[in-house]
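During the reporting period the student researcher (J.K.) took over the structure-prediction task from the postdoctoral fellow and processed the backlog of single-chain submissions. One of the processed entries is reproduced below for the supervisory committee.
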Amino acid sequence: MVVVHSASLQDGAGGKRLLQKLFDQIKCVSYNCHCRLKTIWADGAYQEIADWVKLFLGWTLDLVRRPAGGEGWRVLPKRWIIERTFRWLGRYRRLSRDFEHTVASSEAFVYIASIRRMLKLAV
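J.K. obtained the following structure tokens:
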């Protein structure tokens, strides 16, 4: 699921848009009567929407936080998966800079890069 929005939008508001779009997509699929999604891992910046996610979507937003007193860079549980994915997407020339004029084309190139990555792993 990809949602592209302006940089002026706060993390919590962007997270709400993404999760609402995902929820609407899952809800509208007739053959998916029982959603298996229960827990979502998120950065500490999304704490403000944790209650909203539980109340309106029925999912648990599990926040991955830095350990208290820890300085410098550390590998955080589950967060490295997201960082790795962004690193993979950054290898594609069209995604290394913002060349697109429309949001739809930006989303399309993220999907194309992801599909190419999955096909490369499958071979």
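The committee noted the following: The radius of gyration is 16 Å.
J.K. will present the remaining backlog at the next meeting.
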